[in-house]
Amino acid sequence: MCLHRAWHDALDRCLYTTIPFVTLRVTLREDTPIERLLQDVVLEPQTREMSQDTSFVATFARQQRVLSMTGVNVFMFAQVMQQDVKKENPLQFKFRAKFYPEDVADELIQEITLKLFYLQVKNAILSDEIYCPPETSVLLASYAVQARHGDHNPNLHTAGFLANDRLLPQRVMDQHKMSREEWEQSITNWWCEHRGMLREDAMMEYLKIAQDLEMYGVNYFEIRNKKNTELWLGVDALGLNIYEKDDKLTPKIGFPWSEIRNISFNDRKFIIKPIDKKAPDFVFFAPRVRVNKRILALCMGNHELYMRRRKPDTIDVQQMKAQAREEKLAKQQQREKLQLEIAARERAEKKQQEYEDRLRQMQEEMERSQANLLEAQEMIRRLEEQLRQLQAAKEELEQRQNELQAMMQRLEETKNMEAVERAKLEEEIRAKQEEVSRIQAEVEAKDSETRRLQEEVEEARRKQDEAAALLAAATTPQHHHVAEAREGDAGSEGGASDEGGGDLAPQPDDIVDPVEERRTLAERNERLHNQLKLPCKFDGCTRLCDAGHCRPASLHDAPPSAAAKALKQDLAQSRDETKETAMDKIHRENVRQGRDKYKTLREIRKGNTKRRVDQFENM
């Protein structure tokens, strides 16, 4: 049994605990023939944390024939030299999940499965095996950063922190005139919005978005129809799809697994018999027999899993799900406890900061009050001086009035005085009256100034009382304030035969094509829908478009986030249209026409099987 077949069998037996990919390094001894060394292989996981890469060290055992991997025992008899591998030392193999789940949220139960499958899908997106548009790439990168580094901490995650991380497809970076710093800032803006999200949840969100990409989970094979037209056959968890040679994003014809009864091949001819007996066989030709063997293995496996998903879970799967729920609940409770402790610590630190700010504010108030007190004392001194001057002026006024009265009396007594003397006396009286009037005006002015100063003194005394109260509050013991605050807060490869095939499992009558009810995450999640909206500049369109819609902006009530707005602006300004690939143009046209993955699948599965087979023959 070959390595590939053994791994295939392991995946079949471990649907819900599939190991997506590992790297096997085999070191050969110079004095031992390779065929003898590689009779039995035992894989043991490394003890180091598998954070970014998932590597396994190969050791050799002559007696033990057990492959131990995350609790799954797989008997493996390896005839490595029969495989088409390079004769290098060490030999390196990359194992991947052969079958993709229909819905990652329902089928990836164990955390290790989620982690390894996430690594495989992320690697496929970064290497452009799965096409991902630029705006979605940045969003996925933000989830990848959250999954690896946790919550964003501005004190720890400074500029340049992501410089060595591979987060975006090279195609996306080449198509936009943005520096690494600008890409990092765009990713960080969205990373900040994921605060509080568990690493496992970030991986799951990554996969939820990734599974809506058109090329996700599709195995492509070069085929020809009877007219010798070159086409692509896509095999995935939902069925078989036919693509034109220059377009891997948009399938033209689809056959769900629920319509297929039998799959077989003879040499390079591949025959698919539909359940509808009135429909002709679906026949195509592969370039090599080995390709047909791989197609058959994928079809049989995907169909079996398709049917298994629509049956009640086995006891093992139920136990696995129950265990996963318990582990998730325990982890969630632990995280909630940690969050409560963090929140309590943050509240305590916030209150301490508030107390420190209040103390500093009171110290400033005390300094201002001290200054006001000194000013009030100076004002009181000036008032007392004014009062003394006023009293002296009043006394002088009284004296002048007495003198004037005496002169008036003399004037009355000297009626018989000569005219000259009388005129002189009258002149003295007028002068004295003017002096009295002047002094009286001065007294009134000083009296008014005194009243004003008295008002200022009263205000100064009030401020002095307030300063004294603040000083008393500042000297109150700290625990008194804490008590008050608390009261206020109470709130595969087959054999050598050139033939193969077999009947597929019988189809229950009540199976519904899952594509009929399937919607992309962006369509179901309004927030994500707004995040992925981009201005559409094609054919004069003034709408906001995303991966599945092209609607007027007024239809969207929830505004895009600040990060989404910034990203839209940056990508629109920095796009280099000369570096667009054929995939980009196809995706842009699909967006313009309002197509997404599941809308396209629903469209190409319309009509009876015969019509679709005829359509394939005429391509």
Report on the structure:
The protein has 619 residues and is an alpha+beta fold. The chain folds into 4 domains: 3-94, no CATH class; 105-210, Acyl-CoA Binding Protein; 218-311 and 513-519 and 596-619, PH-domain like; 348-488, Four Helix Bundle (Hemerythrin (Met), subunit A) (Up-down Bundle), CATH 1.20.120. Helix content is 52%, strand content 12%. The protein has helices at residues 3-13, 34-37, 104-107, 111-126, 134-149, 170-174, 180-193, 199-210, 289-309, 315-413, 419-474, 478-489, 521-524, 526-531, 562-574, 582-592, 597-604, 609-617; strands spanning 23-26, 41-45, 55-60, 66-69, 72-75, 91-94, 219-224, 230-235, 239-244, 253-256, 260-266, 269-274, 282-285, 499-503, 534-535, 544-545, 550-551. Strands 2-3-1-6 form a 4-stranded mixed β-sheet, with no helix packed on it. Strand 16 and strand 17 (550-551) form a beta hairpin. Helix 4 (111-126) crosses helix 8. The protein is rod-shaped. The protein starts with a helix and ends with a helix.
Features:
Moesin/ezrin/radixin homolog 1, 4-stranded mixed sheet, 619 residues, alpha+beta, 4 domains, 18 helices, FERM_central, 4-stranded antiparallel sheet, membrane, 17 strands, Acyl-CoA Binding Protein, cytoplasm
What's a quick, concise take on this entry?
The chain has 619 residues and is α+β, with helices and mostly antiparallel strands.
How are the elements arranged and paired?
Blueprint: H1 3-13, E1 23-26, H2 34-37, E2 41-45, E3 55-60, E4 66-69, E5 72-75, E6 91-94, H3 104-107, H4 111-126, H5 134-149, H6 170-174, H7 180-193, H8 199-210, E7 219-224, E8 230-235, E9 239-244, E10 253-256, E11 260-266, E12 269-274, E13 282-285, H9 289-309, H10 315-413, H11 419-474, H12 478-489, E14 499-503, H13 521-524, H14 526-531, E15 534-535, E16 544-545, E17 550-551, H15 562-574, H16 582-592, H17 597-604, H18 609-617
Parallel strand pairs: 1-3
Antiparallel strand pairs: 1-6, 2-3, 4-5, 7-8, 8-9, 9-10, 11-12, 11-14, 12-13, 15-16, 16-17
